[in-house]
Write a structure and sequence with these properties.
Layout: H1 8-21, H2 30-46, H3 56-59, H4 65-87, H5 91-105, H6 108-111
Helix pairs in contact: 1-4, 2-4
């Protein structure tokens, strides 16, 4: 699977099938899924803790480091997809609406080159 060839619906289905095959729906309530997102995000952050931005490219030359980061990022996304499945949230619509809000809140001409 490649990003350029895979839809969000494909990923949602893949995650849903994995959960269903293990009868994990019983554990995947919104609270547990939201907590799992936060936990996995913290595990992702650990890979960058105490490193300066200029050190990060070198980290990915370490054996297995990139794969570990990829796995943590995938864990975060899988839990996000599970939560979207559970709550029947259309992620494409949600992201589009959020970007429209963000564009109004942070106009490009005013915020270009600076953080909020």
């Amino acid at each position: 699977m490649k990003d350029s060839e895979t839809t969000i619906e494909d990923l949602r289905s893949l995650v849903a099938q994995f959960v269903r095959e293990r009868d994990w729906e019983q554990f995947h309530d919104p609270k547990n899924l939201a907590m799992s997102i936060a936990i996995e995000a913290a595990e992702l952050m650990e890979h960058f803790q105490w490193d300066r931005n200029d050190q990060i490219p070198g980290l990915f030359s370490e054996q297995g480091k990139r794969e570990e980061v990829e796995e943590e990022l995938a864990d975060v996304l899988c839990y996000c997809l599970s939560l979207a499945n559970h709550l029947d949230i259309d992620l494409s619509e949600s992201i589009e609406k959020k970007m429209v809000k963000n564009a109004a809140k942070y106009p490009g001409e005013e915020y270009r080159g600076r953080h909020s």
